[in-house]
Specification:
Number of strands: 11
Order of helices and strands: HEHHHEEEEHEEEHEHHEHHEHHH
Strand order of the largest sheet: 4-5-7-6
Amino acid sequence: DTKYVFVTRAFNDFKVTFNKESKESEAAAQLIEYNLRNLANGQSLRDIAQSAATFNEYGFSVFEKVYRKQPEGMDYSGKILLDKLAFRPQSTLSRETPFMYDEKSRQLTGVKQSSCALVNYKQNFTGLGLTLSGALPNTSGNDVVILANKVVVMTMSGTEANPAGVSPLIGCYRAFREKILIENLEVVGCSKDLGGIIELKIPSSVLNNANRDPNSLDAQMVNNLMMDAANAHSGEQSFFILPSDYSNKGNPQYSMTLKGIDGGGKQYKTSDLIVARKKAILDRFGAGFINVGNDGEGANNLSESKQTTHGYFVERDIQIITEAFNKNIIPQILALNGIRLSDKDMPKLKTGATKEIDMETFSKFVHRIGTVGYLPKTPAVINKILEVGGFNEVIADDMDLEELWQLCMGTPAEDTDSDTGAGGDYDGTKPGAK
């Protein structure tokens, strides 16, 4: 869940970058950005990222590309646009052959969905219809095949031979099962105060008589004592009634003890066992910072270090999703409209930040490199500073540098004797002046 929060946040705010020296690249980027912001049924990239990130559970996620021809009277009318990326739940894929290959088993040709799974899926999730536009029925009649050119497969650790990859949950399954077992034992132990099992001592003559005659009074007493012990173990009874007879040597003939409390057994601290396995599970996803402080240990430096590690895990998930757009979806949308560009001119999806930027640190950075003359006052640099600062103002890329200087400094460049802020030897008169 923590990874889902950060991954989807990156897609709340996105933009499409392009080669500013190419008009074709700029026009293509405008088409792609319009398309991604106007998907069918209000679908957003955040919705897509939420479904795509399920590869953290299953190892992979599958989408079908559904296209539409833009109607007349709308922007880009007549163009072929992506209507939506339809998520195909992993549970609906064929159990036997979810991925199809060519005769030489080298090229992925499609993804196969089980018709039985689709029926069950629709019954379990009423109203959640599955669009199979462009899908071809299999010759067997039992499955539905989605051709490879309409499929997007996102996988964490997949290969060409195994597109499904491996679920990261497998790596922490043993720790999870041990944690559940210890927790169950802990609950049972609480019913008897973690003391062990009940031990009853009864004279052998009474036990022998009970064995010889199950209907005797001795047998009834033994059965009653056993029932009292069981009730006490489950917490349904809080007392015992035992005979107080003594032997000839003065020792009690009947007694009840809890083995373990009197030092006869080893007592483990279950909370330590549970915490150790919880750490193993969180570390599998790089999310160990969640537990910092919960177990009585932790420090700010340790938390920041673990959050940095978790950031690498989140960044990997984001790169997997954006790579699917930049290498598969965007080039295909343009190709369907007869637009073929080089890799340099190809528009690319760029996601937003996953966490807030420390404005104090960023402002110090800008100030320090600005006072020594290493911050060029160009539209690109100024726009980046405004973007980080949360301003909606955008400087035109073709603005004259003299005009930009006057806009930023409030005075013509030739009348400026010093840069804003103290420090350094740069007098700030013009870029390159000393």
